[in-house]
Amino acid sequence: MSAVIGVRSATAILERRRGLPAHGPANPFFLMSIKEATRPPTYCAGKSHAAHGRAMTSISEFLTAEHRHGDELFAAASHAVDRNDWPACRERFGAFHESLRRHMAIEEQVLFPAFEQATGIAAGPTRVMRDEHQEMLALLEGIAAAIAARDAARFRGLAQSFSALVDSHSGKEENVLYPMCDEALPELSGEKLAEMVSKP
Ligand SMILES: [Fe+2]
User: Which residue from 1, 76, 124, 139 has the least number of CB within 10 angstroms?
Assistant: First the structure.
């Protein structure tokens, strides 16, 4: 079983390996920028999905496509506010919220625990992602209240904050964490993720 290590101690270990002074930044994404050094031996033995010859969607492809779908649903809700069409806004926002909660469940219930177990990094990027999920859900509660009150100004203000947070969050996942998951978890495809989360 992989040892669970904190981000600071992991950073210190990696810096010693690389001959760097042991006082790296506390930002967990520092670890992700030097992902080559984070790989334990079993990690290096992993093969890509292509190498396994399977016609499955990679973790990156599957979850990035879900991000784009969510972006479209949220934009549709925003456009409905621009048209002052609150029933349409409520419907599209509801579809977005449901889609996002399922996406987060895939990550938090299946992907992140699998990544943490495979790499031994339990207090790093996945913890940051979980915290940002909570921030996103809190903002969505405010947006739902703005929709219920038909308050376009409040909707737009909160939607702007939400979009900025989502852009930052999705960028970190798509550019760094998902590719790391593809490599650390060669047996896990996008289809498998969706199948696992839908089980009771
Ligand atoms: Fe996420």
Answer: 1
